[in-house]
Specification:
- This protein is of the alpha/beta class and about 775 residues long.
- Helix content is about 65%, strand content about 10%.
- It folds into two domains: about 130-465, Na+/H+ antiporter like fold (Up-down Bundle); about 470-785, HUPs (Rossmann fold).
- Helix 10 (about 160-185) runs antiparallel to helix 18 and helix 20 packs antiparallel against helix 21.
Length: about 775
C-alpha cells in the first residue's frame, strides 16, 4: 500500500516537472514572434498605477449587465426572504412581505432615503433584463396556478360556488367602473380612453387570489370543512372567470372599442376550444404512461415546457397576454393527481422562490407612494379601498347568506374573497404597462391589494371570536360527565407516531375514564402547495393509524399547515380543552454532545468553561431550540404536558420513577396506570429525598399500588440517582420540575437515561373552575380523571 502511494506521487511530480520544462522551451522558441506584437499599449500601461488598474477592472466588472443582474437578484432575494419571514412570524401570508419588500427596494423608501444606492442598483438602463426574468417567472407561476385548478372537482360544486364567485365579480366590477367615472377626468383624461380605464378599474376590484386564499384556508385547518370547500371552489371559479374577462378587457383596450376587439376575442375562444377539445385529451393519454417520477424523464418535461411556451406565445400574438396562455396550459394538464404533482414539483420552487420576488420588486419600482402627497389623494385611496372591500364582501357574503349559509360562514366567505395578493399585482402591471393605469392610480391599487390581503387573517379570527363554532365549556363538562380523558398527540416526526401512541395507551388510559386520542400533525410552511396537502396528511398518519388498528385504539386525526407550529399546537390544545398534551422530543434533551465532551476532561477549569458555554448554548447548539419549544408547550398549555424522549424505544417493561419532591406524587398514579395497562411492566421507585417514609400522602399512594400489584412495584434502597444504572431500565418517568433541577445542574447521568416521559402536571382552566363541584361528587374519581 505504501509503495503504491509513493509510486503515484512520483508519477505526479514527474508530470508537473515535464510540463514546466516543455512550457519554458515553448516560450523560448516563441520569442521570434515578438517583432509582430503591438507594444505601444503595453508600454503605455506601464505608466499606470497597478492599484488604479485593479480598481478600474473591478468597477468595469461590477457594471457589466450580467454582474448587475446578479447583484439585483441577490438584493431582491435577500430582502424578500427577510420580509417574508417577518410576516410569517405574525401569521400573515409570505406574499405580503415579498410585495412590501419590492416597495422597500423601490423609489418609495430606498430611492427616497438613499437615491445614489437606488440609482446604482436599479439603474433604468439595467431593468430590461430584470423585467424579462420576472415575466418568465409569472408565466411559470400561472402555469402552476392552472394546474392547481381541478375542473372535475369544480363541476361537482358548481351550483352554489358558481353563484358566489360570479356575484363577487359582478358587484365589485360595477362599483369599480362607477368609481372610474368620477376619477377619470382628474387622473386618466388625455392618457387613455374611458372604456379601457373603466374596464381595468373594474377587473382590479373583482380579482381574488386563489393561491393565497387556498393557503390561508389550509393554514387555518379548514381544507376539509364546509367553509373551506366552498371558499376554495368559489375562488377557483372566480380565477377562471376573471382571467377570461381580463383576456377580453385586454383585447378591447388594445383595439380601442368592443367592435374592433371581436376578432381578438373570437380567436381567443377558438384557441380555448382547441386546447380543451384536442390538446387536453392528448395530454391525458400521455399522463397514463408518464404517471410516476421513475418514467417522467427530461424528454416529457421538455415537451410540456415547449407546450407552455407555445401557448403563452400564441395568446400574446393574438393580443390577449402571454399569462393567459400559460394559465390555460396549466388548466389542460391531465387531471391525474400524481402527474400534476410531479410537474408542479419541477416548476414551482424555481418560479415561486426565485423568479416571483423579481416581479414583486419590479412592481415596487413603479410604486412611488410619494405620489400620494396630498390629503385629497389619500382620501381617494381610502375610498377606493372601501369600495373594493365592500364590493367583494357584498358579492361573497350576502350571496352566500341568500343561498342558505349561516352568518359565520357567509362572513368568512366575504372576507376570504377579498384576498387579492399576487393576482391583483399581475393585473395592475398589465394595465400599467399598457398605459391604461396612470402612476397615481397604480399606487392606490397596489396599496389596496396589500391592505385587503393583510386584513384577511385578522378578520377571520374576529369572525370566529364573534361566532364561536361550538360552546367548548359545555362540551367539556359533558365529556367529563361521561368520563372521557382527552389526549392530544402532537406528531412531529411521523416515524415516532407508533411510539407516542404506545406511551399514551400504557400511561394515560385510566380505570374510571375512557381515553380519547387525537393525533395532530403540522406541515411547516404556508408555501406548501395545497395539491400536496392530502398526500402529506395520508403519509403522516399511516404509521400511527396502523398501530391504532393493531392495538384497537380509536383515534382521530387532524392535519394543519402553518409556519407558527408551537403556537398552533398550543392553540389546538387550549381551544379544544384537552386533558393531556403528548409531544415527542429530539435526543438533544437527553444526549448533549457538550455535556459528553466535558466528562472527557479531568481538569476542573475546562469543565467549568464548558458548563458556562452550556448555559449559553442557544448561540452555538441547535438542540437548545428543541428545549425552548417544549418549554413553550409546558408554559402555555392549559393542561398537563408529557415530553417523550425516544432512546431506541420499543416497548415498556422495567420502569424507573424518580420521586424528588412531594409534588411528584402524581407520578405514582401514572405508574399505577402503567402497571394496570401493561401486564409485562414493572415499576422501580427511586425515592431521592425519602418521601415515602416522611410524607403521609405519598406513602398512602405507594401502598395503594403495592396492595393492588404487589409483584410489580418496589422501592430502591439507594437514594442517590448517581448510584443507579439508568440504562438497565427500558422506561423512565420524571416530573418536569425535577428534570430541570438535574439538567440545569449539569448532571452528567442524564446522558445515559432510557426512553423517558417528562411530565408537567397542570389542571386545565375548566378543571379549576369545576373542581369543587366534582370533588363533592367523588373525590377519588376526580383524582383519577385529572391526575
Amino acid at each position: 500500500m505504501k509503495k503504491s502511494i509513493t509510486k503515484t506521487w512520483l508519477f505526479y511530480g514527474s508530470m508537473v516537472v515535464l510540463f514546466c520544462l516543455f512550457t519554458y522551451i515553448l516560450f523560448e522558441k516563441a520569442k521570434k514572434f515578438d517583432r509582430y506584437s503591438i507594444s505601444e499599449p503595453v508600454q503605455a500601461a506601464q505608466h499606470v498605477d497597478g492599484t488604479s488598474m485593479f480598481k478600474t477592472s473591478i468597477m468595469h466588472n461590477i457594471t457589466e449587465p450580467l454582474a448587475m443582474l446578479l447583484l439585483q437578484i441577490i438584493s431582491i432575494l435577500f430582502v424578500s426572504r427577510v420580509f417574508g419571514w417577518l410576516f410569517k412570524k405574525i401569521g400573515q401570508p409570505t406574499v405580503i412581505g415579498e410585495i412590501l419588500a419590492g416597495i422597500v427596494l423601490g423609489p418609495s423608501l430606498l430611492g427616497y432615503f438613499y437615491p445614489n444606492v437606488y440609482g446604482f442598483l436599479f439603474n433604468p438602463a439595467s431593468l430590461n433584463n430584470l423585467y424579462i426574468l420576472s415575466q418568465v417567472g409569472l408565466i411559470l407561476f400561472m402555469f402552476v396556478i392552472g394546474m392547481e385548478l381541478n375542473l372535475g372537482e369544480l363541476r361537482q360544486k358548481i351550483q352554489e360556488t358558481y353563484v358566489i364567485s360570479h356575484a363577487s365579480i359582478l358587484i365589485p366590477y360595477f362599483l369599480g367602473m362607477l368609481l372610474a367615472y368620477f376619477v377619470f377626468n382628474e387622473f386618466a383624461a388625455g392618457k387613455t380612453n374611458f372604456i379601457s380605464f373603466a374596464l381595468f378599474i373594474g377587473i382590479s376590484m373583482s380579482i381574488t387570489a386563489f393561491p393565497v386564499l387556498a393557503r390561508i384556508v389550509q393554514e387555518k385547518g379548514l381544507t376539509r370543512s364546509h367553509l373551506g370547500t366552498i371558499s376554495i371552489a368559489s375562488a377557483a371559479f372566480n380565477d377562471i372567470t376573471a382571467w377570461c374577462v381580463l383576456a377580453a378587457v385586454i383585447a378591447i383596450a388594445r383595439t380601442g372599442s368592443f367592435v374592433s376587439s371581436v376578432f381578438n376575442i373570437g380567436l381567443a375562444i377558438l384557441y380555448v376550444l382547441f386546447m380543451m377539445l384536442l390538446v387536453k385529451p392528448f395530454l391525458k393519454k400521455i399522463a397514463t404512461i408518464y404517471k410516476s417520477t421513475e418514467v417522467v424523464n427530461k424528454g416529457i418535461v421538455a415537451f410540456l415546457f415547449l407546450l407552455l411556451i407555445i401557448s403563452a406565445y400564441f395568446t400574446q400574438l393574438i393580443g390577449i397576454h402571454a399569462l393567459f396562455g400559460a394559465f390555460l396550459a396549466g388548466v389542460v394538464m391531465p387531471p391525474m393527481h400524481d402527474f400534476r404533482k410531479i410537474i408542479i414539483e419541477k416548476v414551482e420552487d424555481v418560479s415561486v422562490t426565485f423568479l416571483l420576488p423579481l416581479f414583486f420588486v419590479y412592481t415596487g419600482l413603479h410604486t412611488e407612494i410619494g405620489l400620494l402627497n396630498t390629503p385629497h389623494l389619500w382620501a381617494i385611496c381610502g375610498l377606493l379601498i372601501l369600495i373594493a372591500i365592500f364590493g367583494k364582501f357584498a358579492g361573497g357574503a350576502f350571496s352566500a347568506k341568500i343561498l342558505g349559509e349561516n352568518w359565520r360562514d357567509s362572513l368568512s366567505i366575504g372576507i376570504l374573497m377579498n384576498t387579492r395578493g399576487l393576482m391583483e399585482l399581475i393585473v395592475l402591471n398589465i394595465g400599467y404597462e399598457m398605459g391604461i393605469l396612470p402612476p397615481v392610480i397604480f399606487v392606490m391599487l397596489v396599496i389596496m391589494a396589500i391592505f385587503t390581503t393583510f386584513m384577511t387573517t385578522p378578520l377571520l379570527s374576529l369572525v370566529n371570536f364573534i361566532f364561536p363554532e361550538k360552546n367548548i365549556e359545555e362540551e367539556y363538562i359533558k365529556q367529563q360527565a361521561q368520563g372521557v380523558f382527552k389526549a392530544l398527540i402532537a406528531l412531529g416526526n411521523p416515524e415516532n407516531g407508533k411510539n407516542l401512541l404506545h406511551v399514551a395507551h400504557d400511561v394515560l388510559d385510566g380505570f374510571k375514564n375512557t381515553l380519547a386520542v387525537t393525533v395532530l400533525h403540522i406541515t411547516p410552511g404556508t408555501d406548501t402547495n395545497p395539491i400536496y396537502g392530502e398526500d402529506f396528511s395520508t403519509e403522516s398518519f399511516r404509521s400511527i393509524k396502523e398501530e391504532a388498528e393493531r392495538r384497537e385504539i380509536p383515534i382521530e386525526t387532524e392535519y394543519k399547515v402553518t409556519d407558527i407550529i408551537e403556537q398552533c399546537v398550543v392553540q389546538t390544545t387550549n381551544q379544544n380543552n384537552f386533558d393531556f398534551l403528548l409531544v415527542g422530543c429530539g435526543v438533544s434533551m437527553s444526549v448533549d454532545p457538550l455535556l459528553k465532551s466535558s466528562s472527557l476532561f479531568g481538569k476542573t477549569w475546562l469543565n467549568k468553561g464548558l458548563n458556562a458555554l452550556w448555559q449559553h448554548r442557544s448561540i452555538f447548539y441547535p438542540g437548545a431550540l428543541i428545549k425552548d419549544k417544549t418549554r413553550y408547550f409546558v408554559e402555555q398549555s392549559n393542561c398537563s404536558v408529557g415530553i417523550f424522549v425516544n432512546r431506541g424505544f420499543s416497548h415498556i417493561t422495567s420502569t424507573i420513577v424518580i420521586l424528588h419532591d412531594t409534588a411528584d406524587e402524581f407520578l405514582l398514579r401514572y405508574a399505577r396506570r402503567l402497571i394496570r395497562n401493561n401486564p409485562h411492566a414493572s415499576v422501580t421507585v427511586l425515592d431521592v429525598n425519602r418521601l415515602l417514609s416522611t410524607d403521609e400522602s405519598m406513602q398512602k399512594a405507594y401502598e395503594n399500588i403495592k396492595t393492588q400489584f404487589p409483584n410489580h412495584i418496589k422501592v430502591l434502597k439507594s437514594h442517590k440517582i448517581g448510584s443507579v444504572q439508568l440504562t438497565r431500565y427500558s422506561f423512565m418517568l420524571i416530573s418536569y420540575p425535577t428534570w430541570n433541577i438535574y439538567s440545569q445542574s449539569g448532571f452528567n447521568e442524564l446522558v445515559r437515561i432510557p426512553s423517558t416521559l417528562i411530565i408537567n402536571k397542570k389542571m386545565s382552566r375548566f378543571h379549576i373552575g369545576n373542581r369543587n363541584r366534582l370533588i363533592e361528587k367523588n373525590p377519588y374519581e376526580i383524582e383519577e380523571k385529572h391526575l
